[in-house]
Amino acid sequence: MNLDRIQTLLTVVEQGSLTRAAAELKCTQSAVSHALSALEEELGFPLLRRGRGGVHLTAEGERLLPAARALLNSAEQLRQTAAAIRGLESGTVRIGAFTSVAVHWLPAVLQRFQRDYPKVDFRLLNGDYHDVEEWLSDGSVDVGFVTLPCALGCETIPLMEDRLLAILPKDSRFANYPKFPLIECETEPFISLLQSSDHDARRALDAAGVKPNVRFYTKDDYAILAMVEQGLGMSIMPELLLKGRHDELLTLPLIPEAKRTIGLAVAGGERAGPAVRRFAEYVVGYVKETIGN
After folding, report:
1. DSSP secondary structure, 218-270, as one string
2. CATH 3.40.640.10 fits 159-261, yes or no
3. Cα separations (Å) of 279 from 117, 189, 194?
4. Element spanning 4, H or E
5. What pLDDT score was predicted for residue 88?
6. How far apart are CA 193 and CA 161, in angstroms?
7. Residue 98 contacts residue 129 (beta carbons within 8 Å)
8. What is the reported pTM?
9. Domain boundaries, the chain
10. Is 1-66 a CATH 1.10.10.10 domain?
11. pLDDT per residue over 113-151, tens digit each?
């Protein structure tokens, strides 16, 4: 089984088109088409359907996909282990992260890691909580930042407790309040993330027995910040996401207090490759240093 052809298939599925897959793989579109045709001929059935909306897996392709991902993951683990035996860490570490971590933690962690292990490559997928959990479940990433508790069958490492804060327009009637009572979410216009991603606010509100007056839904954290700044409502955000921002926003601690626990999930657990395990160690070390400061 040709691993390059398997990788081409997965890249096409992830990118949704042959053109974007060719750009990602740094080859021609005809080379991508040839690799897919050769793989389909080797397997004996079609893998993709092509249409106006891009390419999609056939039913046979859907059944094959988990095994294809597992094969590539095993091959990558083998390469990393062999490199470690030779005394040279190498390989590719695939990371899934949500916005606050991708902005405030990952650049520094990656810079430190690449300084010490320049032969290790990285692939970063940025999404919301739901996206990261999906990527961990289907094997698209090796490690992912999650909120705990997490229902995934992965090894998880608690990293930090992060306060949740109310964010409101600067001219809010709560401007003179030292803290924001969660019960007020029942009357204030509330801007929410999509339900699949809104773990933090939902846990805090459910724990307080509060049903928010939701007026808007969005998938984007920064869209919420912009909407609050324009006076369209209020929301609840993690403190890490708001770090270093100077928006025209009012931020207040919550009553009752609420937090999220950020963790790192390692998809392969103890079976993960050496580069993945070492990266996890760097993340833990960086967060401990940051919290200490």
Report:
1. ES-HHHHHHHHHTTS-BEEEEHHHHTT---SEEEEEEES--EEEEEEEETTGG
2. no
3. 10, 42, 31
4. helix 3-15
5. 56
6. 20
7. yes
8. 0.70
9. 1-66, 159-261
10. yes
11. 999 889 899 999 999 888 999 999 988 999 999 999 888
